[in-house]
Write a structure and sequence with these properties.
Largest sheet: 6 strands, mixed
Pfam families: MoCF_biosynth, MoeA_C, MoeA_N
Number of helices: 7
Bound molecules: ligand LQZAQKY5, molybdate ion
Distance between the termini: 26 Å
Structural class: alpha+beta
Oligomer: single chain
Strand content: 25-35%
Keywords: Magnesium, Metal-binding, Molybdenum, Molybdenum cofactor biosynthesis, Transferase
Pathway: Cofactor biosynthesis; molybdopterin biosynthesis
Cofactor: Mg(2+)
Protein name: Molybdopterin molybdenumtransferase
Helix content: 10-25%
């Protein structure tokens, strides 16, 4: 059975980045840049006043100054500032040539309509200098950047009304299991509601991928072959849940092989989430995730999310921290890398949540993080540092 990091590398190595396309800046959120973006002008583009006040020469700050004009943001200054002269200036306006300082309105004593004095000779310059943030030609965002809200103003400043991004994969979701009914149905005593599909669709949405839900398929070889092959033809990636373990009705690995898919990874040493299939045929990919809801959630986070990110040209890195446990922790078996749900308290300590295993969805629902207990470790002590993965 493969270890987590080995399996992850093998899976990511199979991803062939999808072709790129052009999208409007307004619809570029959470898309992945297929081009590096350089700025086409200095930032700021001119010496810019950072305050509402008066622009003058620093060496004249002790003197009475003669007002030559008022400069608002968007106006070109008409005069250079000479000895004992000033211009009234607004935040964001161009600082006129000759001035090397702007003193704030609050530090000004207005003598008459045309004269003013600075009351604070220790005033700061209050000028954002041309090019101090970036210079024309500088690379602002490298290719492969997953565009977050904080990147958008840079694209706008660089004049990118459209951006070249990698295509998003078409992803289908199928829940397999004869025991499953949809959430709007009342299960019979031997049935269970399908909770995996809505969860996986939401996990896809976190990647800005609108998944295609294809419904529930019973554990029936013929139906599985038929529905899975349709879903695979129409999509780049199929995510299945259920039927991947070793039971008589766990038909997914065989079904995929019968469809000509090569099983690249089968079972990995993580807990929850040991049974999982990753299969491939050309550029068509399939994840057979575990039916157990927490297992499928974690398998998606650990394997499917980095893989889909790689298809979109983005090297996904989870947010991870080393933090101390706030209690002793023990487990009976140590053959797998355990991901256990926890919250972080006000002292930045890891507080494990009550957790009964791979079906305990309400144990997971309050979690802020998953913390790791490595293979070979059964016991951890209060204060031990653990690797924490943010959700
Ligand atoms: N003899 C062995 N039995 C099992 C092993 C093993 O190694 N040897 N592994 C166990 C582990 S670990 C897990 S995890 C499960 C995984 O089984 P499958 O991935 O094949 O999933 P199913 O058997 O189809 O379902 C497991 C469980 O989850 C419920 N389920 C399934 N689909 C959904 C859904 N869409 N929404 C909500 N719940 C779902 C299903 O009813 C079962 O209770 O295998 C162990 N067995
Ligand atoms: O690997 Mo399973 O998800 O432990 O229960």
């Amino acid at each position: 059975m493969r270890k987590y990091k080995d399996a992850l590398q093998i899976i990511i190595d199979q991803a062939e980045t999808l072709p790129s396309e052009s999208v409007s800046l307004m619809h570029a959120y959470h898309r992945v840049l297929a081009e590096g973006v350089c700025i086409d002008m200095d930032m700021p583009p001119f010496n810019k006043s950072a305050m509402d006040g008066y622009a003058c020469r620093k060496k004249d700050l002790n003197n009475t100054l003669t007002l030559v004009e008022t400069i608002y943001a968007g106006k070109k200054p008409e005069y250079n500032i000479g000895e004992n002269q000033c211009a009234k200036i607004m935040t964001g306006a161009v600082v006129p040539d000759g001035a090397d300082c702007v003193f704030m309105i609050e530090d000004a004593e207005v003598i008459d309509e045309n004269h003013v004095r600075c009351t604070n000779i220790h005033t700061k310059s209050n000028i954002s200098l041309r090019g101090e943030d970036a210079q024309s030609g500088d690379l602002l965002l490298p290719a492969s950047t997953m565009l977050e809200a904080r990147h958008m103003p840079l694209l706008a400043m660089a004049g990118k009304s459209t951006v070249q991004v990698y295509r998003q994969p078409q992803v289908a979701i199928i829940a397999s299991g004869t025991e499953l009914v949809e959430p709007h149905e009342t299960p019979m005593p031997f049935q269970i509601r399908n909770s995996n599909s809505s969860q996986l669709l939401a996990q896809l949405q976190q990647l800005n991928i609108n998944g295609h839900y294809k419904g529930i398929i019973k554990d029936d070889g013929t139906q599985l072959i038929e529905q899975i092959s349709i879903a695979l033809q129409e999509n780049d990636v199929l995510i299945l849940t259920g039927g991947v373990s070793v039971g008589e009705y766990d038909l997914i690995p065989d079904t995929l092989q019968n469809l000509g898919y090569e099983i690249i990874v089968y079972k990995t040493a993580i807990q929850p989430g040991k049974p999982m299939v990753f299969a491939k045929k050309g550029k068509s990919y399939c994840f057979g995730l575990s039916g157990n809801p927490v297992s499928s959630f974690i398998q998606f986070e650990l394997y499917t999310r980095p893989f889909l990110s790689a298809l979109m040209g983005h090297p996904y890195k989870p947010k991870e921290l080393m933090l101390p446990l706030n209690t002793d922790f023990s487990r009976k078996k140590d053959a797998r890398l355990l991901f256990a749900p926890a919250i972080i308290n006000e002292s930045s300590e890891v507080v494990p949540l009550e957790f009964h295993g791979s079906a305990h969805i309400n144990g997971l629902s309050n979690a802020q993080v998953l913390f790791e207990i490595p293979i070979g470790v059964k016991e951890l002590k209060n204060g031990d540092l653990v690797n924490v993965r943010c959700l």
